[in-house]
Structures are given as C-alpha cells and as structure tokens.
Amino acid sequence: GESVGLHLPTLSVQEGDNSIINCAYSNSASDYFIWYKQESGKGPQFIIDIRSNMDKRQGQRVTVLLNKTVKHLSLQIAATQPGDSAVYFCAENSNTGKLIFGQGTTLQVKP
Amino acid sequence: GAGVSQTPSNKVTEKGKYVELRCDPISGHTALYWYRQSLGQGPEFLIYFQGTGAADDSGLPNDRFFAVRPEGSVSTLKIQRTERGDSAVYLCASSPTGSGTGELFFGEGSRLTVL
Predict the structure, then answer these.
(1) Count of alpha carbons within 13 Å of A101, Cβ hemisphere only?
(2) Residue A7 has what pLDDT?
(3) What is the pLDDT of residue A106?
(4) Cβ-nearest to A101 among B40, B43, B102
(5) A83 vs B50: CA distance, rounded Å
(6) N or C, fewer C-beta in 10 Å, chain A?
(7) Does B98 sit within 8 Å of A44, measured CB to CB?
(8) Cα–Cα distance between A51 and A90 in angstroms, integer?
(9) What gap in Å lies between CA A84 and CA A38, rounded to an integer?
(10) Residue A97 and residue B43: Cβ atoms within 8 Å?
C-alpha cells in the first residue's frame, strides 16, 4: 500500500543554520508531493510542492528536492529562524485528490 | 477573504453521544476534505467532496461516521455513538478545484474529546 514517511521525528538546529528535513515514499507511481508546516494548535500550512517531472523547486528560503530513483524527498530551509519551529509533513497527492501524510518531523530552532 | 472556518474549536462529550462538527470552506472552493489527526501523528484522510457529492469516502473508519455537504459549501461531519478512540483533532480543508494537485487550505480543526 501507499505510505509516506519521515526519517527523523525531531530535528534540532541552531538559528541561522540551514535545515534539511527528509521524507521517503513507497509508491513509485506517486507524481505529486507537498510539504506542509503545522504550528501548535493550528492546521497544516502549505509550504511548497513539486511534481515528479521536476527534481528541484525553490521558494522563498525553501527548496524541495525529489529523487525518484530512491523515492526520496527533502525540504531544505535556509537560514532557519525561530518562527520556523513547527512540525513538518510531506504528503503525497493521489489521483483522487486526497493527500496521504507522513507522521511529521518536529523542527526545533535553538537561539 | 476568510479562511476555512471550523466549529466548534473544542468539543467534549461522553461516550455514546452524537456529535456534529461543522466546516465552512473558502468561498468558491469546490473541493472539501475532512481529515483526522491524533496526537503525534500526521493527518489521516477521511472523506473528500467535489461539490455536493462525496468523491472518495474510503477513509471513514466505520458506519458511525458520516459527512454531508448538501449545498456544495458548508459541510458537517457526524459521529454517532462516540467512542474514546474517536478523540482527535478533526481537520477540514478546501481547494479551488480538487483536481488532485494544488494547495489544500486547512482550518484550525475541531478538537474532540470523548470521555
């Protein structure tokens, strides 16, 4: 069956450093992926997405990399700030429109 | 305009009771989704509406759970004979098209506690 998972439950980084959050997926037919950020007590917030015909996409301070050969997805956050502290989820969007989420990685930013 | 609105934000009920959770999507969004999130877990898909009809209800755990969207806008998630295991945050999201790609806009969720 399909599954989307994250490698590490918690990532702790120093303010100003770059962060890399990883995600592995199992369905080789997956063709669309999204990263969401969730702060405590709030709903997930869209960060960036990528289609399977791309291997890299950049946003403001964020970059998503996709390696279809090893079914791996990563989110890079440049110059991590305290406001980046949250739980990050990768999600796969199936053909029906539903998102399949992983369990999340908690990012802790140390001042 | 306003984002996705969910009410109530918190609901405490007793085992066996009936509960309704409401979702007001972003105006004009045709697709509406319900997810359930347990503590420390990622959101789990429940059901997805395209307009008034349920396009995919494969995530509903059993027949105690039911959702409607009669006019293609507001949706209600209904849970009968609640059990302690139903305790979770119920998230609603909407999307302009529901095409299978693109951003889902989430509400802040309704936290359900079944005693």
Answers:
(1) 27
(2) 53
(3) 95
(4) B43
(5) 35
(6) N
(7) no
(8) 13
(9) 10
(10) no
**Nearest residue in chain A measured CA to CA from B99:** A97
Chain B partners within 8 Å of A104 (Cβ) = 40-42
- For A:75-104, CB contacts with B below 8 A are 89, 91, 93-104
pLDDT at B40: 86
Q: How far apart are CA A7 and CA A63, in angstroms?
A: 18
Which chain A residue has the Cα nearest residue B58? A98
Question: A48: distance to nearest CA of chain B, Å?
Answer: 9
Task: List, as one string, the DSSP characters of A96-108.
Answer: TS-EEE---EEEE
Burial level of B43, CB count in 10 A (0-12/13-18/19+)? buried
Q: How far apart are CA B9 and CA B89, in angstroms?
A: 9
pLDDT lower than 70: segments of chain A: 1-8, 94-97
The residue of chain A nearest to residue B6, with distances taken between CA atoms, is: A43
Find tokens 């898909």 and name the residue: B45
Which residue type, as a one-letter code, is found at position A105?
A: T
**Greatest CA separation for chain A:** 42
What does chain B come to in residues?
Answer: 115
Rounded to 5 degrees, what angle do the CA atoms A73, A1, B40 make?
60
* Residue pLDDT, tens place only, B37-95: 998 899 999 999 999 999 899 999 999 999 999 999 999 999 999 999 999 999 999 99
